Amino acid sequence: MRRGTDTALHVFVEGRRTALFRSAYLLCGNRDEAEDLVQTTLVRVVLGARRHGRLDNLDAYARRTLVNTFVSGRRRFWRREHAYGELPDVPAQQADNETGLMVRAALAELTPKQRAVLVLRYWEDLSVAATAELLGMRESTVKSHTARGLAALKAAVREEHV
């Protein structure tokens, strides 16, 4: 039974790693931090699945773990050290378009919970009810975080165009 569980977990990790990274990147706004967040999430998911021996709804468990890990990390007054490699001699060519940069910058200004709600609602395409269940909050709280987060995003975009 353990071998079948490990195989299923391996398939899950390989199949969902990229999608989890995309969500993590939108939450963090930083590739290195997003990689760390995904790695921590996947370790917790694998250990949790092995401990409980259940694989039902592993995708929802991974999403919830990702968001909870992100939000709890933002509650700390201090952050982990920030490692910087050697700077290249020439700047890397930007592959992002202006709109993507604006949206990510605006997302970075939101509170962690607002950012989590917007990523889950509009990137992961979850319903209000599913987002509320995943984050452990009431639907009305999800709606208010959504409204405030969208208002802040719109204001940030308007500022960029002025």
What does this structure look like?
- Residues 102-153 form the RNA polymerase sigma factor 70 region 4 type domain.
- Residues 17-79 form the RNA polymerase sigma-70 region domain.
- This is RNA polymerase sigma24 factor.
- GO terms for molecular function: DNA binding; sigma factor activity.
- It holds the Pfam family Sigma70_r2.
- The protein is mainly α and 162 residues long.
- It has two domains: 1-75, Rna Polymerase Sigma Factor, Chain: A, CATH 1.10.1740; 98-162, Orthogonal Bundle (Arc Repressor Mutant, subunit A), CATH 1.10.10.
- The chain is 75% helix and 0% strand.
- It is built from seven helices and no strands.
- The radius of gyration is 17 Å and the shape is globular.
- The protein starts with a helix and ends with a helix.
- The mean pLDDT is 81.
Task: Output the CATH class name of the largest domain.
Answer: Mainly Alpha
How would a crystallographer describe the biggest sheet? none
Q: What is CATH's topology name of the largest domain?
A: Rna Polymerase Sigma Factor, Chain: A
Decide which structural class fits the backbone.
mainly alpha
According to DSSP, the number of beta strands is 0
> How many angstroms does the end-to-end distance come to?
61 Å
| CATH architecture name of the largest domain | Orthogonal Bundle
Count of folded domains: 2
**What percent of residues adopt helix (DSSP H or I)?**
over 70%
Oligomer: single chain
- The outline comes out as globular
What is the mean pLDDT? 81
Strand content: under 5%
pLDDT < 50 runs, ≥5 residues: none
What's the gyration radius in Å?
Answer: 17 Å
SSE topology string: HHHHHHH
